[in-house]
Amino acid sequence: MAAPVAPPADQPRGLAPAAAAGPWQMALREFRFWLVNYRRTWRGSIYSSVLSPVLYLGAMGLGLGTLVDAHGLARLGGVSYLDFLAPGLLAAAAMQTAMGESTYPVLGSVKWLKTYQAAAASPLRPADIFHGHLLFTVLRLAMNCSIFLAVMAAFGAVRSAWVLAALPAAVLTGLAFAAPIESYAVTRDKDQSFAMLFRFGMIPLFLFSGTFFPVTQLPAWIRPLAYVTPLWHGVAICRSLSLGTADLPGVLAHAGYLAAVAAAGIAVGQRAYRRRLYV
């Protein structure tokens, strides 16, 4: 009689692995869980996804933009402030969506509702749970960024057909935030640190990563800090595509940086989820 086969290292004893399902098939099961939940709340999120770009582009792109265009058009390379601002806000909206989806929903799943623990008691592995939630975050990023692009077009803030390529660029920007933040959020037991993350992380990035003005207008000593942030790379790639000034080496460099940050976050997240769910 053959000796029993021990479960894999990432499979707790007592649970039979789903032999017929590959890792991404298992992740899709977790993704479908989040999708079913979202079907109950999507209407409210759609309203905010439309209203936010309308307010920002209307108030700052058209309102403040008239003053900027009258006095500082040359500093923006001859483009209107609305055209300059809109793609930067697209990348910033991706960051905000990613941070919203990667903080409280993760903590709620692991601490308050215990849905992660319920999933971990099934054949799903921690990596499957992480990947499934991350896939849902990518879906939310794609939805919100698509709506933002549609609002940009309605405001006439599109100067090139290459703006369509800004959609995957914005999603990649969001993923570069979502993966590391989910890795951090799953280790938390309380939500106090999230307020600090939003206040001292998201807001400074939103203001000083090139969304509202060129980073070259910052003091020389602070520019390197802006250049290493994922949002600056996201703003740069989205803006160049929207304005039609993109060059392939630049796009690949920015995209490669964002992909590297996302990949590092995924690698850390797999270990963080395993440590938290297999105790």
Question: What are the key terms here?
Answer:
279 residues, mainly alpha, 0% strand
What would you say this structure looks like, in words?
The protein is an all-alpha fold and 279 residues long. The protein has one domain. Helix content is 71%, strand content 0%. The protein contains 11 helices and no strands. The protein has helices at residues 23-38, 42-71, 81-102, 104-112, 115-120, 126-154, 166-185, 192-208, 223-227, 230-243, 248-277. The longest helix has 30 residues, at 42-71. The model is unreliable at 1-7 and 13-20 (pLDDT under 50).
Secondary structure layout plus pairing:
Elements lengths: L22 H16 L3 H30 L9 H22 L1 H9 L2 H6 L5 H29 L11 H20 L6 H17 L14 H5 L2 H14 L4 H30 L2
Helix content: over 70%
**How would you sum up the global shape?**
elongated
- Measure the end-to-end span: 33 Å
The largest sheet, given as strand count, sense and whether it forms a barrel, is: none
Short note summarizing the structure:
The chain has 279 residues and is mainly alpha-helical. It has helices at 23-38, 42-71, 81-102, 104-112, 115-120, 126-154, 166-185, 192-208, 223-227, 230-243, 248-277. Helix 2 packs antiparallel against helix 3 (81-102) and helix 2 packs across helix 6.
